[in-house]
Input
Amino acid sequence: MDKLIYTAMTGAEHTLSQQSNAANNLANASTTGFRSQFDTFRAVPVVAGSGGSSLSNTRTLVVDSTSGTDFTPGALQQTGRSLDVAVQGSGWLAVQAADGTEAYTRAGDLKIDQNGVLQTQSGNSVLGDTGPITIPPQSSVTIATDGTVSTVATDGVPNAVNIIGRIKLVNPDNATMVHGDDGLYRQADGADATADQTVQLAPGFIESSNVNPVESMVTMINLARQFDLHMKMLTTVDGDESKASAILSL
Output
């Protein structure tokens, strides 16, 4: 069997993987605080083992490797909602993941669950200095630029401001951040990032996704064409094999 078949096959397989990633980016073009993922192809040489032919050393397979995340900030959109915050510049909100570990997100469209816990829209509790932040009932919430969460009782003494806590804001090196399957980010070494007092929030704003829908669509079209090319290569090789077999049978 022609060795070109293996090259075309691996190219088609990993083109589909890239297509899936591009589709995921496009699907999250309107997701608050989403960071687009990008990946690339790399060639991996096939090293012949003992007894392998010398021609095997000239073969390469194609591997799709996720290069990382585009950390370019998205545009800020004003909502005027008291529970909406956007990180200005670099930095992250600390939240509690489903497994109880600390993770990080840029999605600042917060909510209060039925138990009064401040959470993201996906249900992750926002972490403060001493753990998740709980909002008292019958209170209006205000979040300051430094992450301080204060409330005013709507059924008590007017203008009595109570400081509930302060959202943990971190600013680790983006090179150390890895994207999890749950959509959250963590440090590669698994350690919790230290709070950074210089990170500022923009209350009443949310950060849009940094995905460019037009670029994502163009990428998907190009990948579809690449996949068709790999399929044509397989068809061509199959036809050549059939013709060669017919000639040899004579």
Notes: Residues 50-55 have pLDDT under 50 and may be disordered.
